[in-house]
Design goal:
By secondary structure, this protein is an alpha/beta fold. Helices cover about 40% and strands about 15% of the residues. The chain has 2 domains: about 190 residues, Rossmann fold (3-Layer(aba) Sandwich), CATH 3.40.50; about 120 residues, Alpha-Beta Complex (UDP-galactose 4-epimerase, domain 1). The strands form 4 sheets. It has a 4-stranded parallel beta sheet with strand order 3-4-5-9, with helices on both faces. A 3-stranded mixed beta sheet has the order 6-8-10. The chain has a two-stranded parallel sheet with strand order 1-2. α4 packs parallel to α5. The chain binds nicotinamide-adenine-dinucleotide (NAD). The site of nicotinamide-adenine-dinucleotide (NAD) has 28 residues, from α1, α4, β4 and β6.
């Protein structure tokens, strides 16, 4: 697994280990944390170093690859597109090269709702047109295209999981979300409660939504992790490439998230209202029908209360 020391990858390590899989994590620890890889082997290395990646496959017996590692900041990708294109694409190409050399033909990819661009219909189904508008989303789109070509030419079978908004933390409090800089709403809400941010910025209060703030589809990271195990099991038995959304088809506005966070933490959250950001859309919701049908995926943790309670617990304890 690449990126297993990061936020989502580390939750997937935990879920895979719970279900008896052997896991080797390959991570350069650029944004990940060593202590998040609790129960798996960690190889510290960079996917951009082709020899390192080839060496990984030459020294381990690998049955399948889960590829989480990526640069992930949409805003930064506008300012430094070449960093995103270079790193996200070369990392993925090096990984795929090493897989082909070692004859490993199962691949699970961390894609994103960003591949769809501005939604033309809601909820978004997997056959919605792909039209990413930020460089980050483009890199996900290109990797998906590469995967399709590698399937046709080399028989590499993949499941590309298009996540909507990953949120929450490990229910046992072992891992949580801590990007630096943090751009996501829920961790920023927690950082504001803890006094590490003066105010929570709300971008856009004039969207055509009931309270004027943007509505997003939040999915608990433990539910996301479970979907990866289901996807892996499916690829083992049904070698067929697929694109699958991971979302809840339930949306919460920014103000709803803030109000619920105030209730759970018992703190008033000071906010600053800012103009909309470039590219932000009013509502993003995923159809989860395909994930339910093909993977047998059920949401267990993705209601807003569970998301915020687990996030709050982790932030409170981690920040001590
Ligand atoms: N967080 C979300 O809401 C969200 C939504 C959609 C898609 N995704 C995708 O999910 C994946 C994981 O996201 P995350 O939030 O856990 O991010 P993260 O930054 O917490 O994790 C990324 C991990 O990859 C590692 N890494 C980065 N570049 C590397 C390289 N060149 N070589 C080796 N390791 C490298 C980092 O050290 C880190 O451990 C990413 O591919 C991201 O694009 C995330």
């Amino acid at each position: 697994m690449t990126g297993g020391a990061g936020y989502i990858g580390s939750h997937a390590v935990k879920e895979l280990r719970k279900q008896g899989f052997e896991v080797v994590v390959f991570d350069n620890l650029s944004t990940g944390r060593r202590e998040f890889v609790r129960d798996a082997e960690l190889m510290v290395g960079d996917l951009e170093d082709r020899d390192d990646v080839l060496n990984l496959f030459r020294t381990r017996e690998i049955a399948a690859v889960l590829h989480f590692a990526s640069l992930i900041q949409v805003g930064e990708s506008y300012v430094h597109p070449r960093k995103y294109y270079t790193q996200n694409l070369s990392s993925s190409l090096n990984l795929l090269e090493a897989m082909l050399e070692a004859d490993v033909k199962r691949f699970i990819f961390s894609s994103s709702a960003a591949v769809y661009g501005i939604p033309r219909r809601i909820p978004i189904t997997e056959d919605h047109p792909l039209d990413p508008f930020n460089p980050y989303g483009q890199t996900k789109f290109f990797v998906e295209r590469i995967l399709q070509d590698y399937d046709r030419a080399y028989g590499l079978k993949f499941i590309s999981l298009r996540y909507f908004n990953a949120a929450g933390a490990d229910p046992e409090g072992q891992m949580g979300e801590c990007h630096d800089p943090e751009t996501h709403l829920i961790p920023n809400t927690m950082l504001t409660v803890l006094g590490k941010r003066e105010r929570l910025e709300i971008y856009g209060t004039d969207f055509p939504t009931p309270d004027g703030t943007a509505v997003r589809d939040y999915i608990h990271v433990t539910d996301l992790a479970a979907a990866h195990v289901l996807a892996l099991r499916r690829l083992m038995t049904t070698p067929q490439s697929e694109f699958i959304n991971l979302g809840a088809n339930k949306g919460y506005s920014v103000r709803e998230v803030v109000a619920k966070a105030e209730e759970i933490t018992g703190h008033k959250i000071p906010v600053r209202e800012r103009p909309r950001r470039k590219g932000d859309v009013p509502v993003l919701l995923a159809s989860k029908d395909k994930a339910e049908r093909l993977l047998g995926w059920n949401l267990r943790h993705s209601d807003l209360t569970a998301i915020l309670e687990t996030a709050w617990r982790w932030h409170r304890e981690f920040s001590r």
